[in-house]
């Protein structure tokens, strides 16, 4: 009997969902397929030590990236704060986004 049929999953699934990390994001970072990660989380496949380390490293990298991106966004917000409600062209010349 599959433990998932009883509602049991590995804690990593709850952690991933709680922090808004998608299976695709984790897959891209870890190099493990979405299907394999999904099956690991639902305890349908045995977890190898190598897969475990790849998933843990991927989660850590994703979280570090988010911290870095948040810091950049916050600095950008602080610089733009007083101008955020100014009217601007959505597209700059050449079709480029004006926000870039």
From TrEMBL:
Origin: domain of life: Bacteria
Task: Tell me which InterPro entries the record gives.
Answer: Cro/C1-type_HTH, Lambda_DNA-bd_dom_sf
SUPFAM superfamilies membership: lambda repressor-like DNA-binding domains
The entry lists its GO molecular-function terms as: DNA binding
Q: Start and end of every HTH cro/C1-type domain?
A: 12-42
Q: Which residues cross the membrane?
A: none
User: What protein name applies here?
Assistant: Helix-turn-helix transcriptional regulator
Name its species.
Answer: Agathobaculum faecis
């Amino acid at each position: 009997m599959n433990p998932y049929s009883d509602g049991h999953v590995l804690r990593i699934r709850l952690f991933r969902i709680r922090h808004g990390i998608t299976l695709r994001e984790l897959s891209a970072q870890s190099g493990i397929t979405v299907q394999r990660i999904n099956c690991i989380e639902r305890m349908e496949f045995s977890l190898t030590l190598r897969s475990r380390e790849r998933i843990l490293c991927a989660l850590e990298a994703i979280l570090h990236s988010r911290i870095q991106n948040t810091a950049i966004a916050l600095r950008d917000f602080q610089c733009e704060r007083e101008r955020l409600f100014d009217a601007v062209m959505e597209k700059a010349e050449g079709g480029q986004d004006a926000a870039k």
